[in-house]
From TrEMBL:
It comes from the Eukaryota. Belongs to the SH3BGR family. This is SH3 domain-binding glutamic acid-rich-like protein. InterPro entries: Glut_rich_SH3-bd (IPR006993), SH3BGR (IPR051033), Thioredoxin-like_sf (IPR036249). PROSITE patterns: GLUTAREDOXIN_2 (PS51354). GO terms for cellular component: cytoplasm. Pfam families: SH3BGR.
Amino acid sequence: MPVKVFYTSVSGSTEIKKRQQKILDVLSSKKVEFEAIDISQDSKIKDEMREMANDAMALPPQICNGNEHCGNYEAFLEAVENEQLEAFLKLKKE
């Protein structure tokens, strides 16, 4: 299961919660296997997410394939709208 979605279960931001849910809903509806990883459970996980995103201030949700960062919510949404989700998630073998 290569796709990882980093999210937080303890956000006061409705916007972050909505974005996280949208990603999970889209991946489920497209039958993409993924692992949802809650960064609020361990600060090491948050650090790992930010390291993969190459952004010390990165906020969830962030999406990775294995240890390769795919992008954030905006990039995900753009890929869905342009019907390039498989490429965005790095699922297509070039």
